[in-house]
From TrEMBL:
Residue ranges of the TM segments: 7-28
Protein name: HEAT repeat protein
Superkingdom field: Bacteria
Positions in coiled-coil regions: none
Source organism phylogeny: Bacteria, Bacillati, Bacillota, Clostridia, Eubacteriales
Gene3D superfamilies to which the protein is assigned, alphabetical: Leucine-rich Repeat Variant
Keyword line: Membrane, Transmembrane, Transmembrane helix
UniProt-listed PROSITE patterns: PROKAR_LIPOPROTEIN
């Protein structure tokens, strides 16, 4: 019995020793791999610096660049690589994922140097055939590898604006991938390539596949588009019926920030009550940024809408009306101060104050001809006279005897008085 227990103890100690040796070997291997990767990345940097410094235009410069490229090949394979072209050598080097990661780290570092960007981008674009071949290899791997390939294509601007471009075709293939990162990286690449039709086709493919990519990312991506934005807006509108309402909403949010030419077309959609709810709300926001007089009446109707329409329409329309000054707008906003929904009352009060507020610099010449100084000093002088003055820039002020203000503050509706006083206090802290 003691011998059996000793044997088990010895086996346990041997297993512990093996595990310790395995862990030690893994740590050393990982450390060696990291150092080797850093060394290879430095070799890539030297190669890119050689390209940027020499340009590779003369025979001696081409030879120097080729020598720097061959130094990246393991020493025992260099004799076999000497007779091959640069594209073959580059493909041989980048066919391993670790090598592609090292390449990306080095070229990203070099592209961040302003002096290197001009000579390096044309060089890497000249190696486009290599990356097309690499795409055939890496697009069949897992989603993380596909996402990394799309990122590298965007970083090096490898694709063209035409949808028929092979790299662009690869990105269009990836936009319906199940991975969010893969979709976003491929879309970012298409935005960087500057092709309007390619971007529209990407959104059409997402719509047809029923893939709901983040609407916020879509809007931000369209705003980062590197080509002609007006042309992009026109192409997106040409494909309007092919998009899901989800993507139409993201496009309207993009148009709100970039293009005011669609006011008449979007107004027709806003008036159609059977249209998607989120799309119509996005259009209401559009008219806050882009004033369009024919939309005034529709926005006022939405503020007065029945509860079945939804308080969101009334709340957003109230904010949008701050871009449509006039007695009729003030009347609608004063009525909205009595709305049963707090958000509608709050937005109506904010819009009403924005309509009544004027920059201090415009008021000073008439009201304070004897006062000269900074906007802060002029604002303090107006505040001493009872005006409501904001603290932000530019400083704005609201007259205490403004008729619309007095009607509410001296009125009988307690809800209207309270929300307006609350907004006045917030206005003075802005």
């Amino acid at each position: 019995m003691p011998k059996a227990s000793n044997l088990l103890l010895y086996l346990y100690l041997i297993m512990c020793a093996c595990m310790l040796l395995f862990d030690l070997f893994s740590v050393l291997r990982r450390r060696f791999s990291l150092r080797a990767g850093e060394a290879r990345q430095e070799q890539w940097k030297r190669y890119f610096n050689e390209i940027c410094a020499r340009g590779g235009n003369r025979p001696d410069e081409e030879e120097a660049c080729r020598y720097a490229l061959l130094r990246l090949v393991p020493w025992f394979l260099r004799p076999a690589m000497k007779g091959r072209g640069d594209d073959e050598v580059l493909y041989f080097l980048l066919r391993r994922l670790n090598a592609l990661l090292e390449f990306q780290g080095a070229i990203s570092w070099c592209l961040d140097q302003p002096s290197n960007r001009y000579p390096l981008i044309p060089w890497v674009q000249g190696k486009k055939a290599v990356f097309i071949r690499l795409g055939e290899r890496y697009l069949n791997q897992d989603s993380a590898v596909r996402a990394f390939y799309a990122y590298l294509c965007r970083r090096c601007l490898l694709g063209g604006p035409e949808p028929e471009d092979p790299i662009t075709q690869n990105m269009l293939y990836l936009v319906t991938d199940s991975s969010l990162y893969c979709r976003e990286n491929s879309l970012s690449a298409l935005y960087a390539f500057g092709g309007t039709e390619a971007v529209a086709q990407a959104l059409v493919r997402l719509s047809r596949a029923g893939v709901l990519h983040s609407a916020k990312l879509i809007t931000d991506g369209l705003l980062s588009f590197h080509g002609d934005r007006r042309q992009l807006s026109d192409v997106l509108w040409e494909h309007w019926e092919e998009f899901l309402p989800y993507y139409q909403t993201a496009i309207v949010n993009y148009l709100r920030m970039s293009d005011s030419r669609f006011c008449d077309r979007l107004l027709l959609l806003l008036k159609e009550e059977e249209e998607d709810r989120e799309l119509r709300l996005a259009i209401v926001r559009y008219y806050r940024k882009n004033r369009y007089e024919p939309a005034r009446e529709t926005l006022q109707k939405l503020v007065r809408s029945s509860p079945t329409e939804g308080w969101e329409f009334a709340a957003l329309a109230a904010l949008s009306l701050e871009s449509y000054p006039g007695d009729d707008t003030e009347k609608v906003l004063k009525q909205a101060l009595s709305h049963r929904n707090w958000y509608v009352r709050s937005n109506a009060a904010e819009a009403l104050l924005n309509l009544l507020a004027r920059p201090v610099s415009e008021l000073a010449p008439d009201l304070l001809p004897e006062v000269s100084g900074t906007a802060r000093e002029l604002g303090d002088a107006l505040r001493e006279r009872g005006w409501y003055v904001s603290l932000g820039r530019p400083r704005r002020a609201v007259a205490p005897d403004a008729p619309a203000l007095k009607d509410v503050l001296e009125g009988e509706d307690r809800f209207a008085r309270d929300i307006l006083r609350y907004r006045l206090e917030a206005f003075q802290r802005e």
